[in-house]
Amino acid sequence: MARDSREQQLIELKDTVKELNTTIKNLNALIEAANKREAEHLEKEKVLQEQIEYLTKKLFGKSSEKRDDFEGQLNLFNEAETLMAEPDPEEQEFTTVEKHTRKKKIKMTDKFANLPVQKVLLDVPEDERICDICGTPLERIGEEFVRREIELIKPSLKIIEYYSVSYGCPKCKEDAEVPHIVKGRDDQKHMLHGMASAGTVAWVMYQKYVNCLPLYRQEKDFKMYGAEICRGTIANWIINNAEDFFRPMHEYFQRKLVSGKYIMADETPVQVLKEPGRRAETKSYMWVFRSGEYDSEQIVLFHYSPTRAGQTAKEFLEGFHGYLMTDGYGGYNKLKDCTRTSCWAHVRRYLIDAIPKGKEYDHTQPAVQGLAYVDKLFDMERKIHEKKSLNFDAIKEYRLKKEKPVLEGFWKWLDCQTAIKNSRLYKALVYIQNRRQFLETYLEDGGCSFNNNTSERSCKAFVTGRKNWLFSDSTKGADASALTYSMVETAKVCGVDVYYYLKYLLIKCPSSQMSDEELEKLSPWNPECKEALDELFRKHQDAIFDAM
């Protein structure tokens, strides 16, 4: 009986132990799940805190991406080079600094050499030209320089009326059935839309697309000049003349661009209010396509599109088989006939954004380590730019010998990195890994750019203007802006005066019937065009001088 009781107790104890083990197991599972949730929350909190710091830095921090090393600070590469390695003789030869020549100080008179000069004589009143000693009338014996000032001549408007002079034969007038009459011809057919001259239209374009002056403010200026010209009229001047006379040049530039070997591209949003089938708040896009950084004939083309779809770039660059430099936007993947290259400046920005606040010089931080590799590549590229005499073959050879080892070290570093999902570092690592193939392409050809900063600078002019005029009213206005910005930015990169180039095109009236040879002569890099612009400038200066 006692034995049965002990067995019963043993069974009950075993059941209790089993229940306790089950309870412990369940509690451990709950603890593990709670710990996992807590770890996830901590990760999310860390990501959110990182995002707050990032946005705060974007809002209140300095916008420059330049990093200044403080005195005594050694980065990863400088430390290795300083303590372990002797300078490479070939590198020394490549970076030899020529004898320094102090830049000649520019005189004030040289800065204003192109301005007309009006001489004003400060004469002595006639009643004071008497000798105080003997009363004899004074004689002029010379003059001396007193001062110089710059006088701004306020813009003004005037109406120019053209009359055709007629000539008839006095003898045939009585005898002939049809008298012989000739009339003076108007060869300046530039204005097909309204009464504005080529110079007036060029000026309103210059004000909007170079000085970023919205049309409503130009309307006020015209009123101040004495003319009631509404902004709608000014808009029509721009739209109609850009379509008629800039479109042929734009299409010619596009043909030249696509036939080249290097193109750089970028895109930025623009708001168009009256776009068929779309709300006014919907984003449209202005695309920028420009020639390679080292091309002798520089071209910058803007193209308006309702969407950011990669099909836009594919259609615009149809027939292009060279190297295309872009940022990380995936829409460019639709271009299959060209060789893609990616921008290292974007890689650098991602790594800078991934550095925690206050850890900019902490080399235990992965982002700081990666940035050291990228900065080394930028330093090497800077040396290439300083050595302007190098050809593409020499640049390629230098990159393969000097930059490729650094690049290989960077990839090894990248493959060893891990990061919290959705953190700034994680996004940087994913961004770089996804573009790894395109980031190496620049090694293939010395004419390839290392970054896309050149096209971004071209795009910046549009972005600056957009901050002032905010939107385009219609698709026609957006197209006209794209055409005009193309002429403006192409003139800028070719080093010619934008206003006179716009005026020159409006005088010459490019058309689709012109041959490429004729359009070439109207291009801002063409010597004939540059000579014509100089002549326009001289005439303008002479007119100012005559009006004094």
UniProtKB/TrEMBL annotation:
Occurrences of domain Transposase IS66 C-terminal (ranges):
486-525
Q: Which UniProt keywords apply?
A: Coiled coil
Domain named Transposase TnpC homeodomain is located at 48-118
Domain Transposase IS66 zinc-finger binding: from-to ranges: 128-172
Q: Which residues cross the membrane?
A: none
Q: Which domain of life is it from?
A: Bacteria
- Establish whether keyword Cell membrane is in the entry: no
Question: Coiled-coil ranges per the record?
Answer: 3-51
Q: What are the Transposase IS66 central domain coordinates in residue numbering?
A: 193-479
Q: Name one Pfam family in it.
A: LZ_Tnp_IS66
- InterPro entries, alphabetized: IS66_C (IPR039552), Transposase-related (IPR052344), Transposase_IS66_central (IPR004291), Transposase_TnpC_homeodom (IPR024463), Znf_dom_IS66 (IPR024474)
Q: What is this protein called?
A: Transposase
The species this protein was found in: Butyrivibrio hungatei
